[in-house]
Write a structure and sequence with these properties.
This protein is of the alpha/beta class and 203 residues long. The protein has one domain: Rossmann fold, CATH 3.40.50.880. It has six helices and 13 strands. The chain has helices spanning 13-21, 32-36, 49-58, 61-71, 81-84, 190-202; strands at residues 2-5, 26-29, 40-43, 76-79, 89-90, 103-107, 120-125, 127-128, 143-148, 150-154, 160-165, 169-176, 179-182. The strands form three sheets. An eight-stranded mixed β-sheet has the order 2-1-3-4-13-12-11-8. Strands 5-6-10 form a three-stranded mixed β-sheet, with no helix packed on it. The longest helix is centred in the last third of the chain and has 13 residues, at 190-202. The radius of gyration is 16 Å and the shape is globular.
Length: 203
């Protein structure tokens, strides 16, 4: 059973529909008590960093998630803002993140005169940096859908599974043992996202 965290900062419909499409059992939850019985967690999210942190804290979900993920070592997949909330903090806000990954989120710093726009929005491929089960059956042509203005910078590059390129390489997938984050939206990435979610379900 996949537990999708509902903390008011994401439309869960597309994620739950995609999980259903791949045959995974999933439920949305919004209380610490429900997190306490989770077998694996997906933390989605869109919007501003501090708003996401506050939304978790107001519901008591931050400590509940950390307890299950750190102490009980269940798998967690952070998606988009959910990935960034795994960090210690972000240039976008003043509050501390969950601190599950030793990293900080930085704003895209594009070269003067660049024709690229912020946010980074659209399809992009991955540049694999190390092997991980989350990338099983995905090749170099696999494309994923991104929408973001900030990106994760890890203190330890060994935590980076894959990068993508937008005016320079940035972290697209991060993993530290049972803790995984993806900057893109697998639920909006068609068959490639379906495969990635299958991989997470099987972890």
């Amino acid at each position: 059973m996949i537990t999708v965290v509902d903390y008011g900062v994401a439309n869960l419909g597309s994620m739950l529909n995609m999980l259903k499409k791949i045959g995974a059992k999933a439920r949305s939850v919004s209380t610490p008590q429900e997190i306490a019985s989770a077998e694996s967690i997906i933390l989605p999210g869109v919007g501003a960093f501090d708003h996401g942190v506050n939304a978790l804290k107001e519901r008591g979900l931050d400590e509940a998630i950390k307890e299950r993920v750190v102490e009980d070592e269940i798998p967690i997949l952070g998606v988009c803002l959910g990935m960034q909330l795994l960090c210690k903090g972000s240039d976008e806000g003043d509050l501390a993140g969950l601190g599950l990954i030793d990293a900080h989120c930085r704003h895209f710093n594009l070269d003067d005169g660049s024709s690229l726009k912020i946010p980074h929005m659209g399809w992009n491929v991955l540049i694999r940096k190390k092997s991980s089960d989350i990338l099983n059956n995905l090749d170099s042509n696999s494309r994923f859908y991104f929408v973001h203005s900030y990106h994760m910078v890890c203190k330890n590059e060994m935590d980076v599974v894959a990068k993508s390129d937008y005016g320079g390489e940035f972290t697209a997938i991060v993993q530290q043992k049972n803790i995984i984050g993806v900057q893109f939206h697998p639920e909006k990435s068609h068959r490639f996202g379906m495969q990635l979610l299958r991989n997470f379900v099987e972890i």
